[in-house]
Structures are given as structure tokens and as C-alpha cells.
Design brief:
Blueprint lengths: L2 H27 L10 H15 L5 H18 L5 H23 L10
Helix pairs in contact: 2-3, 3-4
Amino acid sequence: MNANYKQQTYLISGILLLAIGLLWLFKSVGIELPEHLISLPTLVMITGLVILVKSQFKSESGWIVFSFGSVLLMNRLIPDQNLLQIGTASILTILGAYYILRYFTDGNESGQKNL
């Protein structure tokens, strides 16, 4: 196992444990936190962010998970705006265009055509 990978794992684990401990402490002493701070959309966003940090922001799946978490959170913060459907459709459209562009550009950068 790579030493750098091990250090990143310790850092991310430490940050997550610190955040969970602080949130639990705040709840125990009666400090009110916004309801959306501790929710499924926030957990999805954090999961995507962890994937992105571990891959140095090069992971497609990390961007997808983070984007869906953002859409879920915006839908919760701004109700009655149909953001879930609009956001999901936008993410799928952008992802589809990205994959099509990637299909036409990967492997053909040197100007050679595959026969």
C-alpha cells in the first residue's frame, strides 16, 4: 500500500470522525443546527467529495455522486421549483454529451484513424 494513499485515508477518516463527533456534541449540549446540514443529500455530497478528493478530482463517478447530492439538497432548500427533475435531466444531458465527446476525442488525438 502506498504511503501517500495511507496518509490520505487517515486524513479523510479523521475529518469525518471529527465532523461526526462535533455534530453529536452540538446535539448533546442543545445547540440547534440547520436540518439540511444532517440529511441524506448532504451525506451523498460528502460521499462524492470524498471520492473526488481521493482521486484528485479526476473521478467521473465522484462528480456524478456530488452533482446528484447537490441537486437533492437544492430541491430540499428551494421547494416547489421542480429542481429535482430539472437538475437530474441536466446532469444526464451533460454526462451524455461528455461521453459522446470523449468517444470522438479519445485515441484520435494524434490524427490517426482507427481502421
